[in-house]
Each structure stands twice: as C-alpha cells, then as structure tokens.
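Researcher: I'm preparing a figure for a lab meeting and need a structural model of a single chain. I don't have an experimental structure, so a prediction will have to do for now. The sequence is pasted below. Please return the structure as tokens so I can convert it later.
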Amino acid sequence: MEDFISLIAEILEEESVELSDELDSFEAWDSLTVLSIIAFCDSEYNAPLSAEEINNSGTILGLKELIESKM
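Model: Understood. Here is the structure written out token by token.
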C-alpha cells in the first residue's frame, strides 16, 4: 500500500492527494473513475470492490481502509 496515494492521484488526474480529501470533490470524479478504481484495486491488491462501496467510502482514507479490509 506504499504507492497507494500516488496511484490514486494518477487515477484522479491530480498531482497529489491527501488522505482527508473527499472523493467526489475531484474534477475527474465520475463513473469511469470509479470503474478505474475497481480495476486498480482488483489488479494491484486483489481486493474486489463495488461502485457502491467506493462511493460510500467518502474520502481517500476511507477508500484505503476499505481496500485494506478486503485484502
């Protein structure tokens, strides 16, 4: 999970992100981004997630904790 922040920033098309950032506050946040996160989590962490789980996680930290709970 050490590269998590930089990889999520790349998916969100941002130079950097903070754990406290709200997911839906990013300009790139849309259904395609959610699908990208689903694919990323499955391939990088073998952590299957649903769109609903991602949207309910709220923040970058919430997403990280969700992934960790699925690993």
